[in-house]
Amino acid sequence: EFDLDWETMREINNYYDNIELEIERNRAADRFAVAKLPSGRQYVHVDVDQAQFDGKTPREQRRIAEKVILKKFRNKVIGEGGARSFVQKTAAKEYTNPAKRLDSEVYEAKLRTSPELDSLLATAKFTGHNADDGRHEKAVGGWDHYEVVFEVGGKYFTGRVNILVDEKGRKRFHDVTKIKEETLSQVDASTTQGHSASTGMPAHEVLQ
């Protein structure tokens, strides 16, 4: 038996802490399900935490998706580049309760994508900015829009990320709308025309 001095013990503990941190980083990288289309355009291959949606009714899937968003993303900043934005509690309701009725398969695909919101915003492509139409008093700075592509169960979808910009230029994730199913060739062709990468956009201040 032998005793280790305090400094040696601290170095050993730091060594194992760093190993555990690296393992967690690798696991996170494995879960970050970003793939590429033939053109090189990034999209999200949705395969994280999908079993919880299997065999559930649309109402049950909606409740699951809402809980997922609140647990994983509430009060966090997600995304990259100009698409980085803050997720408030209200975003879970907006995401799971679309203003316009969706086709059942499209709605299920949207709900199943909820665990991958961070991946969606990390791969988003800027498509434009619009002033608010007066229905959202907090959107003083208007709306930034981004195109996203995701694949659920072998089917491809495109959608529009809507990010609210407040009076101070801070960005808040609001919803993903205009979702439609397309073939791989349609998606690859439509997403390569005239869109700048999100990282190329001047980023507004992120709401903390």
List the main descriptive attributes of the protein structure presented here.
single chain; 208 residues; alpha+beta; seven-stranded mixed beta sheet; 9 strands
Account of the 3D structure:
- With 208 residues, the protein is of the alpha+beta class.
- The protein is built from six helices and nine strands.
- Strands 1, 2, 5, 6, 7, 8 and 9 form a seven-stranded mixed sheet that branches. A two-stranded antiparallel sheet has the order 3-4.
- Helix 2 runs antiparallel to helix 3 and helix 2 runs parallel beside helix 4.
- It is globular.
> Which range best describes the helical content: under 10%, 10-25%, 25-40%, 40-55%, 55-70% or over 70%?
25-40%
How many E-type strands? 9
Distance between the termini: 51 Å
Based on helices, strands and strand pairing, what is the structural class?
Answer: alpha+beta
From the spread of the alpha carbons, the general shape counts as: globular
Provide the residue-averaged pLDDT: 83
Beta strand %: 25-35%
Low-confidence stretches: 194-208
